[in-house]
Amino acid sequence: MIGASLLLYIGVLRAALGRDLFSRRRLAVGIVSAVVVVGGMLVGKYGATLFGLPWWIYYPLPAALTLALAPVVFRLPPRRALVYVLMAAASAPLIHVGFSFLLGWHEYMPFWPIESLNSLLS
Predict the structure, then answer these.
(1) Nearest to 85 by CA among 64, 60, 67
(2) Residues 6 or more apart whose Cβ sits within 8 Å of residue 45
(3) What is the C-alpha R_g of the chain?
(4) How far apart are CA 103 and CA 99, in angstroms?
(5) 73 contacts 91 by C-beta, under 8 angstroms
(6) Distance, CA of 24 to CA of 48 (rounded, Å)
(7) Residue 48 pLDDT > 80, yes or no?
(8) Residue 55 pLDDT grade (very low, low, confident, very high; cuts 50, 70, 90)
(9) Alpha-carbon gap, residue 120 to 66, rounded angstroms
């Protein structure tokens, strides 16, 4: 799930930043991607399983990082920031639907129940 999320997030950054900025800031793209995706998933995983926190406590921090970090780090002008925020906001439900429906992994957005294909076929 982390690998697929990283690829999708890097694609969002590529589309929002444009080819030139994306190419010039590859190290920053990698760092922001790791913080947002890997860090966010670790907060979610350990918040839910290790600490047993409800989603409304552990979910807002990764969500806020996803929406705010890239526009700040890359100093995006308002139009590009809007494109980024819209694509980043849409990517989380896309990942959740894909993994929940196809593989039965419901952890990405635990507050949004989606039946898996396997359970529908059973």
Answers:
(1) 67
(2) 107
(3) 15
(4) 5
(5) no
(6) 37
(7) yes
(8) confident
(9) 32
Q: Which two tokens stand for residue 99?
A: 């993994």
d(CA 105, CA 13): 25
CB-based burial label for 68 (10 Å; 0-12, 13-18, 19+): middle
- Report yes or no: 71 and 84 within 8 Å, Cβ to Cβ: yes
User: In 3-state terms, what secondary structure has residue 80?
Assistant: helix
Only one residue has tokens 């039946």, namely 115
Domain boundaries, the chain: 2-121
Tell me if 117 sits within 8 A of 101, measured CB to CB: yes
SS3 21: helix
Q: Which of 19, 23, 95, 103 is nearest to 62 (CA)?
A: 95
In the prediction, which pLDDT does 92 show? 86
Position 113, amino acid: P
